[in-house]
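During the reporting period the student researcher (J.K.) took over the structure-prediction task from the postdoctoral fellow and processed the backlog of single-chain submissions. One of the processed entries is reproduced below for the supervisory committee.
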Amino acid sequence: MNRAGLSVILAVLVACSQVSPQEPVVGGAVSLPRVGKNTSACSAILEFDGADGATPAAGLVLRDQLFYGTTAGGGYGHGTLFSVTPSGQETVVHDFYQEGDQPHSTVTVLGKKLYGTTAYGGTSGQGTVFAIKTNGKVLWTYNFKGDPGKDGDLPMGAPIDVNGILYGTTANGSTGNSGVVYQITPTGVEHVIFRFNGTQGRMPYGNLIAFHGALWGTTEQGGLDFGTVFSITTAGKLTTVYKFKGASQSDGWNPYAGLVELHGTLYGTTAYGGANNTGTVFSITATGQESVIHSFGASSSRDGAHPMSALFVYNGNLYGTTLDGGPHNDGTVFAVTPSGAEQLLCSFDKSGSGLAYPSGSVVELDGRLYGTTEFGGPYNSGGVFSISPGPRS
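J.K. obtained the following structure tokens:
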């Protein structure tokens, strides 16, 4: 999502003071020293110039030593699908035009096919699901119709594969414009399996994850109006597992991204809430027991603010990004153990054409983490960075 779009979302997220975090969940993991200083800048391996893409809002996926990603702008003006090597050699796989506008999600790679979504565009302007081969050939596009077709609109996450069928969400559409969960076949036949009405959640932005025989996800709002964690069967039976309580409890609020699993427990981020109202990392069990394991924004650590991305599991720890905050207020990359020990790995600094504002997840290859930033670089179009995930002191 472009910076203006994220600013709008951040502006509408509820803000108020918090009390101390709940007790953390303890789990086995590699220990990280609790430090937040002497961090280095994240190393740019690719800086977009607009022609090859601009403002990548999502992270990367890895397949066969090659990263794939999307940019929400650039190219023909509607965004691009690109690949990049670990050394920064980029190929524009596809320039979006008729297939949709402004892809805000990463892609799901199945063989030599890439599946993803565009937030807008398509025949009705309500967004699309696309299937494109790794050589750039468009296989099919599903065009959301919005309210007239009751199939949802504004798909922000990539669909995931479960037994040969793809499942995803749209942030808008349905009752009260609350969003839907849909399934779509590998040939592009779509069917809505659940429509949110606000009570069970509203505005699911992030990707789904398969866990405990169901699909699990988050809604950014709804429930008690602070967001939810939900599970849903492939037949469409939804359970609201947890409703964030907001200011009355220290559980965080407004989970924008999806969840990850580590040692049988799910972990996620909230863009707001926590001890400093700048976001949290939380854990939640299959039975709905939620705990904040880290609150961002303490003045002593300057470890970032407003995490908008899903976490990434590596070596028994959790890694992620914050959209802003940090020493330069341009975003950070962090690590946190399941028991809540957190470390600032690097902070972005857009001064001098540095990269800034990461809103996507990171991914690992050969002992390094790779991710994207929406802005910064010589053309202020964002880029791809890498960093070592090892402890810094």
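The committee noted the following: The longest strand covers residues 66-71.
J.K. will present the remaining backlog at the next meeting.
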